[in-house]
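Note to self: keep these together.
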Amino acid sequence: MAATHRQTFFVGGSYAGPPETRVMHGQMYVEMLTPEDVRHAFPLVLMHGAGQTAVNFMTTPDGRQGWAEWFCEQGWKVFVIDQPARGRSAWQPSVDQALTSYPLAAIEALLTAPEDRDAWPQAKLHTQWPGGASKGHAGDPVFDQFMASQTASLSYPECERVMQAAGAALLDRIGPAVLVGHSQGGLFCWLIADARPALTKAIVALEPAGPPYKDTLFKSGVDRLYGLTTLPLAYDPPVAPQSPLEFEQDAKPDADDVVTCWVQKGRPRRLKNLVGIPVLLASSEASHHATYDHCTARYLEQAGVKVDFVRLADKGIRGNGHMMMLEMNNLEIAAFLNEWLTAKIG
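Structure:
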């Protein structure tokens, strides 16, 4: 490994509770990896998704090299985080909201063995999860390692609130950076960049939480009233109680194997703080996101944000599910991301 220095610290957080039981909460654990030869002007901030921690980027469940070390070897300074109230960022039950966990069956169905079910058309294309004869299921040693890493998470919109604050505090400390977010972490990219546009040099959104406005695949009941998020984003013209965002659904989907997108109704408002930030939105071949990430890309473009939307299969990177950074070809995907980043920001 090319890293010669590791440093850990915390950002954000505040004291809460009555004086006799006051605690700190909302703080975020950060680990910094610095290579011996830094060859890029701006560092990468790798942000995990729901139920996950920084472990996602440090290694894989079968012990192969993770993205944090690999990007460090390519000359990037790398920051990995544990979301507030998650992992090494303490959850304080006296002041924080309750946590929820994904059960075993949902992990297998959504992340590790979707090919065993027909929940979405592309699921049968999944081939890249590591493991033995029962790969992707409880009892396989690789799966069991992955399941052991899962954590409980704050629900929306609380997770958005604490991550926007902690992410902004991190950029205030480290300076301009590239935000690399996976799943729920991808959604946080929009919020953090909106809060600190001058400190966000690029966004790599890896299957960011979506689709815009309505969850049309899993019918979660959570409406993203600001299109990409439940918390406010800065639009031009501004969104106000007397002038809310309005949405409309397309008459039909773009293809038989994707969902029907929601877009802004009428004259689109611009996401004024995201315009001008280079954005890559990448989607795996076999993930549930293959059915709706195009809606996120379209929503961003409608709001004035230039997006490079890439289906990894179109780059010859095939068979991946949602947890792309852990799968057998994880470094092939990292190499593609590195190529894009080097071309965009050097």
